[in-house]
Amino acid sequence: MNIEFAPDDWGLYVHIPFCRARCTYCDFNTVTHMGEDQHRQYLGAVAREWQSAKLPTGRLISVFFGGGTPSLVHPSLIAGFLGAVRDRIGPIEDVEITLESNPGTLDPNRLDAFRQAGVNRLSVGAQAMQEDHLKALNRIHGVEDIYSAVEFARQAKFSNLNLDAIYGLPNQTLNQWQETLSKLIELGPEHFSLYHLQVEEGTSMAIGVAQGGLHLPQEDIVADMADLALTMLNAAGYEPYEISNWARSGHESLHNQLYWTMNSYIGLGAGAHSFHNNRRWWNFRGVRRYMMMQGAGESTVEGEEQLSVSEQMREYMWLGLRRRAGISKDGFAIKFRRTVEDVFQVPLAKLVDLGLVVNGEHRIWLSHRGWEMANYVFRIFLDSGTG
Ligand code: SF4
User: Fold this and answer.
1) Is residue 247 part of a domain?
2) pLDDT digits (tens, 9 = 90+) for 339-360
3) Measured in angstroms, how far is the CA atom of residue 298 from the centroid of ligand 1?
4) pLDDT of res. 372
5) Domain holding 316: CATH number?
6) pLDDT tens, 131-177?
7) pLDDT tens for residues 198-254?
């Protein structure tokens, strides 16, 4: 089920850039050498940014603590920030409040405190269910920690749980991926995010691959892994509602969907991005710099761009097509006062001919083959003219 938001519904993203150790594949904006004092100082800076942020006028739908490892900071800091949100906009009991977590940082007391603070959705980075893969990725947890994290989360009354896993890992076999999926399915989360590993430049994994020490599975094996996920998760009652995301009905992540529908979001913290009124802006990435500038009352915005109408149309297409439901033709026409066929006549005809996109009466969506070649489809829209 894909949600249709009101145009002025919006989300809040809070970047928590702290980790205990860096995973080999990670190129996120994160630091591994800061302790509790700096966590406190940083959350103070985020609260100052929140107080001075110009907010959209609509309904706040979601608060998302992403990272980094938000579950590494003391729960009282998360509680304090959510208190500041309530102080400014009123009750947030109906808001989806997600905390990303690493299983190596969770215990019953911390989970209870996060839940008491108002967090109502927990995302657990499991990634794999084999010790050797977790070690090779430099994760700070083992397989047992994943089981404990889910058990503790349920005890703390989290009823909306996401598990993250990665396929296409170096030396990963199809059987191992099957084992990971079946063990994670047995844990019974409400939601899955399954990512195809992207080897990012500058990471230690990229160096290992370039030097020939790490071997990625072949393309056809990776395609089989994606198909296997589709088969196993469907059989277990999960629906794919976006390219990487699966949920039991009614547990689709609101936060993710706000991005794909081009609703507004305000990002707080080092390197965080915001989007409102077709303007995108982003903060400086450096954590110390961000704290210093906030402390001095200076703007932490590093850059901004105003999207032209053509850019908005292209983004509307590629972001909307990430969703299982695709894009609404009426929605496009209302937003841009032109029909989607008028604007994207040539690329649309080509993609329909190739069997990658289905052009229905009211909606346009990716075919099964289109999902497998989604990046190609997105590129066609991103590179196309808009007449
Ligand atoms: S825990 Fe997440 S954010 Fe931190 S280093 Fe690992 S992948 Fe990156």
Assistant:
1) yes
2) 999 999 999 999 999 999 999 9
3) 29
4) 85
5) 1.10.10
6) 999 999 999 999 999 999 999 999 999 999 999 999 999 999 999 99
7) 999 999 999 999 999 899 999 999 999 999 999 999 999 999 999 999 999 999 999
The verdict on pTM exceeding 0.85 is yes
Whether residue 230 is found in the same domain as residue 166: yes
Q: Which of 23, 162, 199 to probe ligand 1 with, by most ligand atoms within 8 A of CB?
A: 23
Shared domain for 101 and 18, answered yes or no, is yes
In a domain, 267, yes or no: no
What is the rounded distance in angstroms from the CA atom of residue 221 to the CA atom of residue 315? 31
Q: How far is the CA of 16 from the centre of ligand 1 (A)?
A: 11
Using a 6 Å CB cutoff, which residues line ligand 1?
19, 22-23, 26, 28, 30, 67-69, 102, 125
Does residue 239 fall inside a structural domain?
Answer: yes
Ligand 1 center–CA 107 separation, angstroms: 19
d(CA 363, CA 365): 7
The CATH number covering residue 222 comes to 3.20.20.70
CA of 285 to the centre of ligand 1 (A): 16
Return d(Cα 47, Cα 85) in angstroms, integer: 9
User: What is the extent of the structural domain holding 246?
Assistant: 10-259
Q: Which tokens go with 6?
A: 């009101």
Q: How far apart are CA 293 and CA 296, in angstroms?
A: 5
Mutation to probe ligand 1, out of 30, 205, 287 (largest number of atoms < 8 A from CB): 30
Helices 329-336 and 309-321, packing angle to 10 deg: 160
